[in-house]
Amino acid sequence: MLTITGATRIVIDENTERVGDLVLDGGVVVAGGIPNDGSNSNSNSNSNSNSSSSGASSRDDSARSGINEILDASGCVVTPGLVNAHHHLFQSAFRTMPGTRGVPMAQWLPTMGAAYADAGITPEVAAAAALVGTAEGLLSGVTTVADHHLAWPSGSDTVAIARAVTDAARSLGGRLVFVRGSARDDPQEAAASAEAIVSALLPGVHGGISADGMLQLAVGPAGVHSDSRETFELLGEVAARHGLRRRTQANEQVDVVIALERYGRRPLDLLEDWGWLAPDVTIAHLCAVTDDEIVRLAASGISATHAPGCDLPMGWGIAPVMALRAADISVGLGTSGGGSNDAGHLFADARLAMQVAPLVGPPLEARDAIAMATAGSAAGLGRPELGHLRAGAAADVCIWDVSGVADAGVADPVAGLLWASPGRRPRHVIVAGRVVVRDYQLVDADEADITAHLHALVGR
Ligand SMILES: [Zn+2]
User: Fold this and answer.
1) Cβ distance 275 to 239 under 8 Å?
2) Ligand 1 mean position to 344 CA, how many Å?
3) Sequence-ordered list of residues with C-beta below 8 angstroms from that of 250, at least 6 positions apart, any chain
4) Which residues on adjacent β-strands are paired with residue 217?
């Protein structure tokens, strides 16, 4: 059992905030806090009498050993673990590459492709990049990351690449959703690879989620601009066979332009024809969508992922998040990959989402941005146990220290999580009831080793 005591505020979900103690046991939330009396003060007067800290000296393996651990959260806001619904972890090894900023997609793609070829798209590089990306995520509060992996050299051992990435995430204690993507891959090869990855990593599992909930598999062509109808259909068949979620990207401007050029139609028309506007599909980006398309998207039951930290630097514009939400489309948040975003800090992008929303519609409130980065993303992954802290939820928790000068003078500590202290990191992070980041440090690995390993492989 792990008890987090004396929190200034506990964000249970979009509609509920409490104060006091949060109790985790057996990898799930048992009970959380008492009603907030309305003051924003650091009230732990209602905490249990045994809540007087133990902090850094306590054990890391309480969930497995049955040891009772107490984490002192006085001066802290507690939130659900963040869910990064759209990343390309491989790109973590390829950030700020020359020739990839302020250039059209037609130039970005071959530049990134050349850099990949130079480093080698091997299990070893994929693992090193995934370790970096997953570690960066955990250290910034991301307890679940969806990795839309798009780099699959023809003829390569794709199961080995997938296994390398999934092992990397597991070694740090983070949850991973590994999306067998495709970008101009041969359709038959992509489908056979997806089938092989499912058989190897989740044998005998229907629904695409491991028994311990730490690994989920999904499929995802990069978009209609890169993949054919056959790829969408064949990967869709793999998904249907195994009960996997489907993910793709649509309606960045380039996607729209290429769809019009190649097919004389808009991307969503194609996705609809190809059977990819459905409730098990999540679409990232959605920058250039019309009002009519928003209505169609809502009717189809798809969910969306907002990725402003990619869309803005790539010049794709600002997705109409408030209009999507107003149409009752479930919207999550993702960073997208290091090739466009350069950072995997989801709360930084939640802040960016709030900053740019008023340019294209109504403002986005901090609590809504946090909900997108938690329950919204989890909904798009088909994971109702993630992204909230109601009793029975997965015990994925971030503890954010708001007692420093960057939070002094903050009247609303939940809004302050995003508005104050950009780039903040959580003091402690818990996944499935186990502490994986303690006092700003990874528990299961040394940050310096992870960085040095990637540097040794790719020179960065
Ligand atoms: Zn993306």
Assistant:
1) no
2) 12
3) 223, 224, 267, 268, 271, 283, 284, 285, 286
4) 178
